[in-house]
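Quick look at the format.
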Amino acid sequence: LKQKIKGMEADLRSAEKLEQKTAEERDELASIMMRNKNELLAVQRTLAGGLADSERILAEAAAFDAESAVVGADLLKAREQTALLEKQLAGLKEMTDSGSEQLPSFVGTARGEMELVEERLRGTTNMLARVSLEHDDLESRIVSIKNELEAGRSEEKTLREHLSALGREQLALWRESGNIRATLDEERNRARK
């Protein structure tokens, strides 16, 4: 009986060591799970910020598209006016060649209008070029943010899978620890009897 008790005590010590080791592993897994949860939350916050930036940039791009359309219409109108004034100027030159006396003042006025239209045309062309550059920049930023979002989603998925695996492992260790405790309790009760 004493030998059996000694054997059970040795088994009990062995089981207690295993229980302690299991508890340490459980604590380590809990720590890893907490770190992974924090990392997952950080990734989710980054994704949310990226989505907000993406939506803002898309809204800016839409506004620039609308502005580009207006500037394009102004440019077309200015070109049409320039073409009309050039036709009028050509007609005036023909009249000048035929010797009309009122033509010089009319030609001067027409030239002033044409210079004004050309100046507006240059300004509109410059503004259209600027808007086009800004639009291209916004499109590249949108692509960059979409790529970052996709990478973040992939990282979030990986972290979720890892977290899930750790949870299953922790649950298995917890169950095993419970089984060991139950066995230890049974052995202690037998040893006492």
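Next, a different chain entirely:
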Amino acid sequence: VLLSMGLVKRVPSGESRGSRLFAYDLAKDEFRLLGTVGGRSIGDEVLYVAPDASYLLLTQSWHQLARPGVIRVTLEDGSIEPVVKPISGVRKWFADRSGEVRLGVGYDGLNLRMRYRDPGEEKFRVISNISLDKLQGDFDGFGFTEGDHRGYVITNSLTGRYAAYHYDFRTQEIGEPIFESTAVDLERLLFDE
């Protein structure tokens, strides 16, 4: 069982927030901290859990304003291995359904910047650098089709409501809707396979 705990600490300038992720082993009746230990670290965003539950990918940063990196945490013993180092401007990472980190999204100055890599590539390349004053709508989430450059995006840029659409990461084209509603916004997609 994975448990996330948020932390708030009062400091002279206001509040400092952090988070931690724990694993609870039902058979052994014990808790284990996952990720690194740091005073104000943010470390509870799970990107991927291996199908055999042997490891997970976790974003980790040292405080609210720091760029996150991605680490691999072995669930059996809590050991940590860096997967993706922090990259300037990237605030959120996305992994595909095989556990490969493929996309980093964030703001660089007044631009929305996306860094992407195809399956098996080592380096990320900038695929989008859109000025905020030219951005139509918001991009709220991304997902991948395993081993491909296609996936989905959750955006409100086409109708004003958040919906899920097919998305081509190489061309950045928004395709046909996967799910949309005229009454409610979509928050996320969950897949069982």
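The longest strand covers residues 14-25.

See the schema section for token definitions.
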